[in-house]
Here is the input.
Amino acid sequence: MNWQRPSGRAVPVIAEGLGKKYRRGWALRECSVEIPDNRIVALVGPNGAGKSTFMGLITGMLAPTAGQISVFGDRPQGNGLHPAVSYLSQAKPLYKDFTVAETLKLGAKTNPTWDQKYAEYLVEQAQVPMKAKVGTLSGGQRTRVALALALGRKPRLLLLDEPLADLDPLAREVVLRTLVTEARNQGITVLLSSHVLAELENVCDHLLLLGNGEVQVAGDVAELLSKHVVLTGPVNAPVPVPQQKIIGMTVDEHRRRLLVPVELAHVGQPWAPSAPRLGELALAYMRRSALEKAA
Amino acid sequence: MIWVAWRQQRAQLITLAVVSLVVGTALAMLHWLMLDDLHSAEPAGCWIQQGISADCRKPVAEFQNRWFDLMKVGQVGIIALPGLIGLFLGAPMFARDLEQGTHVLAFTQSVGRARWMVTKLLVGLVPALSMLLVLQWLVSRWLVSARDLGPLITGPYEPLTFVSANVTPLAFTLFVFCLGAFLGALTRRTLSGMTITLGVFVAGWAALLSMRTVWFPPVRVLSDLDYSPSGPEVVLSYRTGYVGAQGQEFGRDQVNAIMRACDQPGYDCWRGHGLAHQFADVLPAADAWKLHLVEGSVCVALAAALVIGTFWVLRGRV
Here is the structure.
């Protein structure tokens, strides 16, 4: 397999037939996907879709049961994280009795690519006191310190496993804004897993949707959106497209909204086509995957 | 990584250093006070004699009243240290990380798991073993100064003396520390790790003692019927009983029956029933160092196996 682009720059992640099986069954299977460079990738899917497993396989903390995975051309070995990758889990583990300064020192002592000034800049920007013990910080502040620790390694790929889950809306917005700014400025590919689709909509330019342990949708957001259309019509009007072509459908008191491939956009009155939003598209695929699982 | 391991265990290691300093100073002072007592009082002239004369009995008894039990406490301290180090340094070593999820933080830096594990173990172990050696040396110097007026008079196999001497404390510490680290990693709970470590340590120690006759087949010492085999205080006695003239052993029931049958004083009746000697299966005092070495080696080998086991457990943790 060729892990590199013709330009010579290694692709952040390439998975081929990747699978991971636990005792309870397959958490991820037949996953063939590529995470391109310099993107902010939304990793979405219902609980148990395989998102954390996929991240675990990228970090090397999990070993694949089937298939293979490459991270910047290397196979993750589980012997320390790839120097070009940073990982921040939902729990954002930090040593509570360390001060913020000591937490950054930990980063410096355990990472050859560490940028102390940059990490300090990120902490100062978040107005977190360096001498404060991590255990005394608020959830938002702790997330900012964890983010500084992750970004201080100067990664080219940043894995964020639902990092905003326990933050209030204001803190979420600030953290997300910082994240996007730094990712754009530093040319970092971000793989961001979250349940809050509305948040992802504004920041992500690539989508990887998992369901039932398999890849349901993958691609650049603009391209994906251009391939779909939402048809809106009266609730009592006959559905104008074959049932099997409908990806998702929502119904309220007056209207019915159908997400369908863009080829079916011109079905005529009373159905009006419009561009879907990322959240709507992701939700439709998630619902369909849940229905398939139930079936 | 050394700094991170040190910072994580800072509280325990500082406590260890303070305890060592306080206990070490106390031991040095007690040693000095005892020597002063020994030289200023009469026992000093008594210990060089063969046996204690009538004149010496009182001052020796008074000296021993003041110091003997205190020296035993010193030995007990050396015996307790491996357990304390294993419980409070070994068991939380990885259990705390796994309990709080901070192992993920360590595993997602650019440091391999093996290096992380070995560094943490060494940063905890080296100061703990150093402290143990210093304290053991201080206690040993103190005991040797008291010569036959202190606990060493009961020989090298007296349980407190044996376990607190030679390489045994060091080997025990290594074993309990690695046992604690392994069980902590396995259970992922500090408290469970500590509790099971204590239980396994006690069971392991009992198993080790039961293996002594396997490693060192005893030497049989015979004595007359009216004397116990000589020198029980300097040998490790595995078994005692009675034998006939050809060396055949008499069972406990047989001996009891003979004793019931012979109610007159003296041993002629016993001899008439075939008993010729008392025997003791023993390990001579001169072999004590071998026993230390063998038991110590077993502990070190177990510790090495536990380190490998810990790595195996940690490798599978996510």
Q: What stands out?
A: The two ends of chain B are 20 Å apart (CA to CA).
